[in-house]
Model the fold of this input.
Amino acid sequence: KAGVTQTPRYLIKTRGQQVTLSCSPISGHRSVSWYQQTPGQGLQFLFEYFSETQRNKGNFPGRFSGRQFSNSRSEMNVSTLELGDSALYLCASSFTGATTDTQYFGPGTRLTVL
Amino acid sequence: DAKTTQPPSMDCAEGRAANLPCNHSTISGNEYVYWYRQIHSQGPQYIIHGLKNNETNEMASLIITEDRKSSTLILPHATLRDTAVYYCIVRVGTGANNLFFGTGTRLTVIP
Done:
């Protein structure tokens, strides 16, 4: 079974631009979570989607948004990019999103904001 | 979710067992212990999890103390490819589905 895939793997943007990242979960998984990883803050939870609805949200500004499609694929969008948004963005999927479900991570998208 | 404490770094000789400790003294009865690892700049990889009994899979063994206040992840025969940051996470069995990653233990396997 294929794992979680994320596209693109690397991205370079400039301040003020917006960016859209994509995540395809493991087949059959309906929950998709997004995380941001930076050297200073470590791995932090952004939000979780289940059945096309945002179910949980971390402590990030409204510039960070996401959505989930009927096939469980998910996208996250960051508008008005800031230098501090440079990070590894990780997507994780699980069957139902229950806290007893194991989350499996994709390889991440490395975003660099210049 | 309960807080975890892990040593910042450890070394292990190749071929020897790597024993990574985790302290979770405030763990509640319905909280699971999960272990992930992250090899440089890759996504975290799930290793193993448990509630109160010891667990073993093809990658590792998880030993949880009887009072559940600490656990040890054991990699039985460490290889150079096991060099990574290892995260111990406790998750409550209900509620929000998100993982709280601490700073982890950086394991270096030495040839």
User: Anything to note?
Assistant: The mean pLDDT of chain A is 94. The first strand of chain A starts at residue 5 and ends at 7.
